[in-house]
UniProtKB/TrEMBL annotation:
Name of the protein in its database record: Cytochrome C
Domain of life of the native organism: Bacteria
InterPro entries cross-referenced by the UniProt entry: Cyt_c-like_dom (IPR009056), Cyt_c-like_dom_sf (IPR036909), Cytochrome_c-type_DH (IPR051459)
Organism annotation: Comamonas terrigena
Lineage: Bacteria, Pseudomonadati, Pseudomonadota, Betaproteobacteria, Burkholderiales
Annotated Cytochrome c domain residues: 130-221
TM spans (from-to): 65-85
Length: 393
């Protein structure tokens, strides 16, 4: 299965095209007044949708789909010409018929998945430290009893459920469409017999609260993946956080998009060596004052305990004290140095697209940090969620 975009680039073009067509159709339907809104966004009016995520797992069917689409395009051209060119008409129409018959139509159950009105919804909340912390509090109140402290499905009530709650410390939250996760949280889940397997929370949670919960689930899952595998096996963004910077036009993390970022949470911020290759964000510890912004760091994070807590979830549930985090130009967290030193090793690159060890990539004289920065730039991240392609190519 091509987990990586580089493995089958044509497939990602296909997924993107399929996704865009569906979103276009949804917007058209909504604009024509044929479908309403649900949970604040246009509702998908059909019971099925194209299942891009399954095509990803079945390259053979994906190829068949491409050939079938090519056949449809050929039919349109042939019919178009037939309308204009009288004498060639019988041959052109016969050719069109032949293309339709010979097209290797893919299997319905592979190409189509059942859909809900929120299937194409996108999380409208920015991924911020505040949203993660808000989600964490809601999780403890509503979800922990089944899904467990670590989100691994080991809550105190888990054994009493008709099916065991799933573990979030796997690819689940990255594969399922965001809007379908929202549906599960708000309206619950049923098994094939229609029995409720997970209760819905639409009565207890507002729509924005439900979205904040999904942000938290992802931060928690990234941290648990880090704990279990030693890597951020699924991509996780550096949360947006409020900043105070020397440059007055920079007010939050996302204002630095396009730059490499380093988050430093050190008791001795004066010892952090400035590095012109990255923007340095200082994350003050309790008792440190963000108002005293040293000259050699670019910004201080001003949300205090909220930022520490949110990053703690992503950092395997552990404190980020004396930890340095690196985010790439697209905003994904890529590397962590938890040793409280200034020297980096290849193993600190925790989110990577290739597994080749540094030795196999040619010995270089470069230091560890330079190598990490080079790989961050050279290996952009991407993944497919609910058939939608996110990120790099
Ligand atoms: C009473 C127990 C219980 C509670 C409380 C509960 N869940 Fe679940 N949850 C389940 C079970 C069981 C499943 C698996 C259902 C299935 O696969 O049919 C599940 C599945 C899920 C899934 C996976 C959806 C998917 O597409 O596979 C998500 C996401 C989820 N729960 C989120 C939450 C959130 C967020 C909360 C708190 C608002 C919550 N759950 C509260 C029992 C619970």
């Amino acid at each position: 299965m091509p987990e990586r975009i580089a493995d089958a680039p044509w497939l990602f073009w296909l997924l993107e095209a399929v996704h865009r067509c569906q979103v276009g159709l949804l917007q058209l339907w909504h604009a024509l007044g044929l479908s309403g809104e649900v949970d604040g966004q246009p509702a998908w009016p059909w019971a099925q949708r194209m299942a891009g995520e399954r095509l990803l797992q079945d390259l053979g069917q994906a190829r068949q789909l491409v050939w079938s689409l090519a056949a449809v395009a050929a039919v349109l051209v042939l019919v178009g010409v037939a309308v204009l060119w009288r004498r060639g008409r019988p041959w052109l129409l016969a050719g069109a018929l032949l293309a339709l018959v010979l097209a290797p139509w893919p299997e319905r159950q592979v190409v189509l998945a059942s859909a809900v009105p929120t299937s194409f919804h996108r999380n409208p909340l920015p991924f911020t430290d505040a949203a993660i912390v808000q989600g964490a509090a809601l999780y403890q109140r509503q979800c922990l009893r089944c899904h467990g402290e670590a989100g691994n499905g080991q809550g105190p009530d888990a054994a009493d459920q008709p099916v065991w709650p799933p573990s979030f410390s796997g690819p689940l939250l990255w594969r399922r469409a965001e809007g379908e996760l929202l549906q599960a949280v708000r309206h619950g889940m049923q098994d094939a017999q229609g029995r409720t397997t997970m209760p819905g929370f639409a009565a207890q949670l507002s729509v924005p609260e439900s979205w904040a919960l999904l942000h938290f689930l992802r931060a928690q899952a990234a941290g648990q993946l880090l704990r279990a595998t030693g890597s951020w096996a699924q991509p996780i963004a550096l949360p947006d956080m409020p900043l105070r910077c020397h440059r007055p036009d920079k007010l939050q993390v996302r204002d630095w998009q396009g730059q490499r970022l380093r988050v430093v949470s050190s008791a001795r911020v004066q010892d952090v060596a400035p590095d012109p290759r990255m923007v340095t964000l200082w994350l003050p510890q309790p008792g440190q004052d963000a108002a005293h912004l040293p000259d050699h760091v670019d910004c201080a994070v001003t949300s205090g305990a909220t930022a520490l807590q949110a990053l703690g979830w992503i950092n395997a549930g552990e404190s980020v004290r004396e930890v340095q985090l690196l985010a790439d130009k697209a905003g994904w967290l890529r590397a962590r140095n938890g040793r409280g030193t200034e020297s980096w090793s290849d193993d600190d690159l925790l989110c990577r697209t290739t597994d080749a060890p540094a030795a196999a990539r040619g010995q270089t004289e470069e230091d560890g940090l330079t190598r990490i920065l080079r790989r961050m730039d050279a290996e952009p991240l991407g993944y497919v969620q609910g058939g939608r392609v996110h990120g790099g190519r």
